[in-house]
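Notes, p. 3: input format for complexes.
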Amino acid sequence: MRPQICDFLPIPELMQAKSILFIQPHPDDLEIGAGATIARLTSQGIPVSCLTVTDGSAGTYDQHMNPDLLSKTRRNETAKSSAVLGVQELLWLDFPDGGILPYEEVRAEIAKMIRQVKPQAVMVCDPWLPYEVHSDHIRTGMAAAEAAFLANMPNFCPVDLQEGLQPHAVDMIAFYYTAYPNTFIEAGEYWNLKFEAIGCHNSQFPPDKMNQLRAFLEAKAADYSNQSGRDMSDPVEAFKVLTPAHLHIFEEAWRC
Ligand SMILES: [Zn+2]
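Output follows (256 residues plus zinc ion):
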């Protein structure tokens, strides 16, 4: 039988990754998109680093909220949440929050982080999510995907090499907040930890909002179970997992 296009580039197994760099535009995105999976990985002793691109200072509808205070509050909330999930390393780029990310600078900073942390896998929000308008999400997702693709090329950001870093090849890139999932992870006992971690972000999710969010994410998890085509009794988190090779002139990637 003739091979299918997607067979040319097999999809890696996310849970086989030996180390993962998780990337989020704002404090709390990772817990919502991948909290249970992060907890599952850290419980298996997999080294997990979490990189936040913005300072989170725009995450409020309160006109009287001081942006610097909000940023500090969210950093503390992230530290608490990461302790719940067992994350070993928290990294911050501290770009200003609120839709003004300088794309090429963010891409260079993320590539530098990849060369420093040397993860086998990178996970970030999917920049190809249909109808997504928040440019922090689109630019962070795209910058991380491109950085994962370019970090192994010595002539990309050669200043990193002058500073003693080496090019680094990432084996897989996974996307949360995706419309095209190909990998479904059962949350099991880690489902409650996900909500314990989200609950640490009290500036964003006071108790009444937490209840709404939990109901929404549980409906979504049931939807993912149906999409997986497998009989999954536990809540599910879903991801699009690809190799960096899928990310350049491989138009079938959306359906692999
Ligand atoms: Zn966000």
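The longest strand covers residues 48-54.
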